[in-house]
Amino acid sequence: MTEIPTLADLAFIPYVDENGQLPEQFQGKVGIYAIFDQSQTLKFIGFSRDVFLSLRQHLVRCLSECYWIKVQTFDRPNRTLLETIRTAWIEEDHLSIDNEAKWTEPIQVKSLMTDQERSTYESAIDEFTQGKALKNVARRIEAEIMAQLKARNVQTEIRFNPKLKEEGLLDLK
What we know:
Elements: E1 13-14, E2 30-36, E3 42-48, H1 51-61, E4 68-74, H2 79-93, H3 100-104, E5 107-108, H4 115-122, H5 127-151, H6 162-165, E6 169-170
Antiparallel strand pairs: 1-4, 2-3, 2-4, 5-6
């Protein structure tokens, strides 16, 4: 059995480095990671077959909570080991994950509509027009996220999947 690393033993790594890049050393790496806010308060624990891609996805979904990470990668992981470590880390930090969907699911733009956008959407005469209205909301939210990323000096390429916008979803390509 592989020894379970404690969160306390792992070093904090900046989510976005001084060059505006996410930690590329985790590209293509299987591992478990913990995400912390600006004050180094634990916000989320996840595991992934590509830690870098997952971190990029979390950044656009929960930008204000992504400032530090702790990561443990594995050459030959198994799901049971990753789940065991995740449980141990949650217990170690007494984390209560209240809204896991905001970290793991595409952004639902319907809940972020302005009154004007909601009115346009609800008065649409057909699915095509509704889809167009949702796409416009998705574009507005995307522009807001991109502006926030720019304010944080994020230089890593971020591209949203254009096909999902008509469904009212924002997710990375």
